[in-house]
Automatic annotation (TrEMBL):
Name assigned to this protein: Uncharacterized protein
Segments traversing the membrane: 12-35, 56-77, 97-119, 174-197, 203-226, 238-263, 275-294
Keyword line: Membrane, Transmembrane, Transmembrane helix
Superkingdom as given in the UniProt entry: Eukaryota
Lineage of the species this protein comes from: Eukaryota, Viridiplantae, Streptophyta, Embryophyta, Tracheophyta
Organism: Hibiscus sabdariffa (roselle)
């Protein structure tokens, strides 16, 4: 329970408030500068829906993304409508979980559209078709089983399909990389800080909480192992902006009279508050770095283990 010192103007006149505000605002300003200045390679539509595995039908990636979306939607529905209600979104975990669900929704749409376009695009004449058939014969693939596969795989040879991704494609990539850091951050904080040291009625471990703080990362990492999306480093800035937005949201709620903080380390009426805020700000770098290492390992190890099956990044 909060006491009278936790309410009113006096709460915001503590010395910790401007220090924590600076720790929050400074990374946000730097992130905005990076987003505005850093240029990256163009994103092509193919990268949004094609697997990075040569012989994997893109329909499998479509099915996986749809499955992940349905599972996450079911978990979030239970959390919001059957357990906590709207107060579930006081927590950073639910923000990130919902964002990951949006990524899989967009990924499902792009995968479905990409498969549909390929299946309805005329096959390349002579050369590309013959090369595809010859390759499949060499790999001992039966001729009567490759008709639909030809239509999907032949898109690798169609230059006209190498179009730039539009607004929604870039948004999908931004959400993907924002979730990459956010799911690592939420799961590490939950399993390494909240469960061992701060377990109570709000953080008690159960099947639903355990699923939300594990399946978010599992689903995203499996998608990473399958997809062809590039992972430019500078989108750490979007991850930082996402977390800063959550902190601003919490401060706004508290200023409007919600005296309970969903995470004790966001509380401002302790001399340790600036240290907590600084530690959380710094933690964004290794959390994003962990996921970047996963992507780097994927692109360096898998081509060596599966040289004939794993394609290089676009």
């Amino acid at each position: 329970m909060s006491n009278s010192n936790d309410e009113g103007l006096g709460y915001w006149l503590r010395w910790q408030v401007p220090v924590c505000a600076l720790i929050t605002v400074a990374p946000s300003v730097v992130a905005l500068y990076v987003i505005s200045k850093v240029k990256t390679d163009p994103l092509f539509f193919n990268a949004l829906w094609k697997p990075q595995w040569r012989n994997l039908n893109p329909c499998w990636l479509l099915c996986y993304r749809a499955f992940a979306f349905i599972c996450m939607a079911r978990i979030l529905f239970e959390e919001v409508f059957l357990v906590r209600g709207a107060s579930a979104f006081y927590f950073y975990t639910q923000w990130t979980f919902a964002l990951a669900m949006i990524y899989f929704a967009l990924g499902t749409v792009f995968s479905a559209y990409g498969c549909w376009v390929c299946l309805n695009t005329p096959l390349p004449e002579n050369g590309a078709r013959d090369a595809f058939l010859k390759r499949d014969v060499e790999e001992n693939v039966a001729e009567d089983d490759v008709t639909d596969e030809i239509k999907l795989q032949s898109c690798h040879a169609q230059e006209e399909f190498q179009q730039r991704a539009g607004f929604w494609g870039y948004l999908m990539q931004i959400i993907y990389q924002t979730c990459a850091g956010a799911v690592i951050l939420t799961d590490i904080v939950f399993w390494c800080v909240l469960v061992p040291f701060l377990s109570n009625s709000h953080f008690g471990l159960n099947m639903l909480m355990g699923s939300m703080h594990s399946l978010n990362a599992v689903f995203l990492i499996l998608d990473t192992l399958l997809n062809s999306l590039p992972f430019p480093w500078f989108r750490l800035a979007y991850f930082v902006q996402w977390s800063c937005l959550y902190v601003v949201f919490q401060w706004t709620l508290h200023a409007c009279g919600f005296t309970w903080w969903p995470y004790p380390f966001l509380e401002l009426n302790t001399p340790w508050a600036p240290l907590w805020y600084f530690a959380l700000a710094v933690a964004h770098i290794p959390c994003y770095g962990i996921y970047a290492l996963i992507v780097k390992a994927k692109n360096s190890i898998l081509p060596k283990l599966f040289p004939h099956a794993f394609l290089r990044s676009y």
